[in-house]
Amino acid sequence: MLLRVYYGRWIRTYKEGHIRDITVSKYWNTHKYIEDNFPKLQIEKMNRQDYQEILNEYAETHERTTVIDFHHMLKAGIRDAYHDGVIKKDPTYRAVMKGMEPRKKKNKFLHPDEIRKLVSVLDLGQEINVDWFILFLLKTGLRFAEALALTTDDFDWENQLLNVDKTLFYKDTNIRFVPTKNTFSV
Fold first, then answer.
1. 23: alpha, beta or left? (left if phi > 0; alpha if psi -120 to 50)
2. pLDDT in tens, 56-98
3. Helix axes 21-37, 48-59, angle to 10 degrees
4. CA 132, 133, 138, 141: dihedral to nearest 10 degrees?
5. CA distance 4 to 172
6. In whole angstroms, what separates CA 140 from the centre of its chain?
7. Are 98 and 59 in contact (CB under 8 A)?
8. 103: helix, coil or strand?
9. What integer pLDDT is reported at residue 155 of this predicted model?
10. Given 3-state DSSP classes, what are the helix, strand and coil percentages for the chain, each rounded to the nearest 5?
11. Which of 160, 170, 117 is nearest to 140 (CA)?
């Protein structure tokens, strides 16, 4: 059986409907890479060297941490194939992680002086506008999608409390409320 066929079936069977859609899409991205670059690779004939070559090729254009994530996604399906008897040996055993040098990351936060500059140019007049939303994000520290998911029922004005128990998934055409990123977000 082709690796891409087995892996696609495995994603549909064990991942879709069981984990978040955003995570399922990462599995499908892994599948697409295998489909595009190793379309004829037979899972039954795959050995450790074949698997390492997949990782090495992926590592030529990705940072090491991304290669590790890719490995974990692909390895999960292949190990299930091993435990189900589809393959005789686990080709992921002792795989070596390589990858490009990490690029310099941009800060994902504002420094206090940058916050003061931003607040000073916000239009916080009588009319509600996006500037009020920006100030709300700055004051609460909420994730963007968590703030978008707030409804009037989430505000307890009497006790000055805010209930954050959902996030807005807006990355495809099926916009909907989903659970927060993790339990600490609630």
1. alpha
2. 999 999 999 999 999 999 999 999 999 999 999 999 999 999 9
3. 100
4. 150
5. 25
6. 24
7. yes
8. coil
9. 95
10. 50, 10, 40
11. 160
Which of the pair, 185 or 71, is modelled with greater confidence? 71
Pair of tokens at residue 14 = 């064990």
Strands, E assignment, 36-154 = none
Structure tokens at 3: 């690796």
Contact residues for 9 (Cβ-Cβ < 8 A; gap 6+) = none
User: What is the spatial distance between Cα 52 and Cα 71, in angstroms, rounded to a whole number?
Assistant: 10
Q: In Å, what is the CA distance from 20 to each residue of 13, 176, 181? A: 14, 12, 10
Rounded to the nearest 10 degrees, what angle do helices 3-14 and 64-83 cross at? 90
Mean pLDDT for the chain overall: 94
The per-residue pLDDT for range 30-47, each reduced to its tens digit, is 999 999 999 999 999 999
Please, what sign has the CA dihedral across residues 149, 150, 153, 154? positive
